[in-house]
Specification:
With 274 residues, the chain is an alpha/beta fold. The protein has a single domain (4-268), classed as Acetylglutamate kinase-like (Carbamate kinase, 3-Layer(aba) Sandwich). It contains 11 helices and 9 strands. It has a 9-stranded mixed β-sheet with strand order 3-4-2-1-5-7-9-8-6, sandwiched between helices. Helix 2 packs across helix 4. It is globular, with a radius of gyration of 18 Å. 40% of the residues are buried.
Length: 274
């Protein structure tokens, strides 16, 4: 039986565990889960975290304001980030590769063909592609999306079965309760446009994406009939938990325009489950 293909998007707050440095423990946790699932699933990762990795080693002027300084930080941090992946994943017998993409790559037919062919070869040979925005030549990710849109576009291009977006919340909270000690999780949504009205506009502390960009990414994937799961990446074993919960029809059965949200997972499915 063919393996299911998962695109896993990892945000900066997940990789740092909301600290000021990349968490080797979290990357090891992710690797352990992938190793446990590799007989049934193949993984492609879209990873933020380059800027956060750089901030561990250097301090540049105006690093929180100037987009060009952030591009420089991304350039410094990317090899450090990949080294951390390499060291942790290799201990688990996992092979990785680096792929740097830009949104412009998705506008050129030959570039899209090249991306698909390259990644298919990598996956076929048991390599886990780790994709990031090529920040040196593009500013959209730094300014707006924190790789959420890139993850969705890549998921569509590679025809994955599930897009998992790891974030730092237990589902999506109502706007009125977002600042409460115990925010209220939205339980059922029947229209993404209604959901958007409840989303706060805050950005992550290390990256630049918020829940809005994740809903927009979900819409891109949903239009291509790809399931999107927004999960709490700060939890241990969050991939295993999501797959276990996702196998339960009562959690993912919904109408074509609806989404079902649990306290730890948001499932946006393109079709009613059978």
């Amino acid at each position: 039986m063919a393996k299911k293909r998962i695109l896993l998007k990892l945000g900066s707050n997940t990789l740092t565990k909301e600290t000021n440095h990349i968490s080797r423990g979290k990357i090891e946790d992710i690797g352990i889960q992938i190793a446990a699932l590799q007989d049934d699933y193949e993984f492609i990762i879209v990873s933020s975290g380059a800027i956060a990795a750089a901030k561990q080693f250097v301090k540049l002027e105006n690093q929180d304001k100037d987009v060009f300084v952030k591009q420089a930080l991304a350039s410094i941090g990317q090899p450090h980030l990949m080294r951390i992946y390499q060291e942790n994943f290799s201990d688990l017998g996992l092979l990785i590769s680096q792929c740097l993409l830009s949104y412009s790559d998705f506008e050129k037919e030959q570039s899209k063909v090249n991306i698909v062919n390259t990644i298919n070869v990598l996956v076929k040979n048991n390599y886990i592609p780790i994709i990031n925005e090529n920040d040196t030549v593009a500013t959209d990710e730094i300014r707006f999306g924190d790789n959420d849109k890139l993850a969705a576009l890549t998921a569509v291009l590679l025809n994955v079965d599930i897009l998992i977006i790891a974030t730092n919340t237990n589902g999506i909270y109502t706007k009125t309760s977002i600042n409460d000690a115990a925010p209220e999780t939205i339980s059922i949504v029947t229209d993404l446009k209604v959901l958007e009205k409840e989303i706060g506009d805050s950005k992550s502390s290390h990256g630049t994406g918020g829940m809005q960009s994740k809903i927009e990414a979900s819409a891109i994937a949903k239009a291509a009939n790809i399931e999107t799961w927004i999960v709490n990446g700060l939890e241990d074993n969050f991939i295993l938990k999501a797959l276990k919960n996702g196998s339960r029809p009562k959690l993912i059965k919904c109408k074509p325009t609806s989404a079902v949200i649990s306290t730890a997972h948001l499932f946006i499915t393109p079709h009613e489950a059978t």
